[in-house]
Amino acid sequence: MKLVVQGTNIDVTAAIHDYVQQKLDKAVSHYQSFLTEIDVHLSVAKHAKSNPRQTAEVTIYANGTVIRAEECNENLYASIDLVSDKITRQLKKYKEELRDRKGQLSTAETADQLSDGALVTDLLNGRQPELPQDIVRTKYFAMPAMTVEDALAQLQLVDHDFYMFRNAATGEINVIYERNHGGYGVIQPRPEGNSEKAVVVRSEAVL
Asked: Which residues are CB-contacts of 21 (< 8 A; sequence separation ≥ 6)?
């Protein structure tokens, strides 16, 4: 299993690297059979005096599945401890899903959770989008085709409120996300020729 440790605004010393490896070795000790790589990103805010937050982000690649967790604390080692514990819980959940496919939401249950008439504005909740002036990090992920049900299961593993995937039914890129008012929504492209680019719909895969 490959371990990659990188840092932003921080020098990843041998002591820090060894601590990360020690904590994650323990965290994944019961799950190494299906893990291929662990990517760790440590970061410290540029203005440490006014913003002492130190972040530890862990991304695990497991047989085509991405499992992610992130924790922040004023102490970097505490952040590493917290994210290691979270990763253990995420891996336990993933292993249970592999062992018992019945644990996944049924098609009917997924349909109940997906909004039938939600708008894209649910993602913003009335706020204006504020993008950073600079792209601070670029990530590349494999995007195999999957059903909406599988995408929902992935969303619950990545510690984000959205998940981008290639819809197996259409071959198109979709986004599944947690709605501010509960449940889940799916964003998918409109057919060519329509003036609007995307709409939140109930996916055909779960009808």
From this structure: 3, 5
Q: Select the more confidently predicted residue: 86 or 123.
A: 86
Instruction: Determine the pLDDT at residue 152.
Output: 86
Domain locations in the chain as residue ranges: 2-99, 104-206
- Which 8-state DSSP code applies to residue 10? S
User: What is the per-residue pLDDT for 79?
Assistant: 96
Q: What is the pLDDT of residue 108?
A: 45
d(CA 84, CA 86): 5
> What is the CATH topology of the domain spanning 104-206?
SHC Adaptor Protein (3.30.505)
Sign of CA dihedral 75, 85, 161, 184: negative
Cα Rg of the chain, angstroms: 19
Q: How many other C-beta atoms lie within 10 A of the C-beta of residue 80?
A: 23
Per the confidence metrics, is the pTM higher than 0.70?
A: no
How far is 176 from 37, CA to CA, in rounded Å? 25
Q: What span, in angstroms and rounded, lies between the C-alpha atoms of 41 and 178?
A: 25
Distance CA 105, CA 152 (A): 8
Please tell us whether the domain made up of 2-99 is placed in CATH 3.30.160.100.
yes
Length of the chain in terms of residues written: 207
10 within 8 A of 41, measured Cβ to Cβ: no
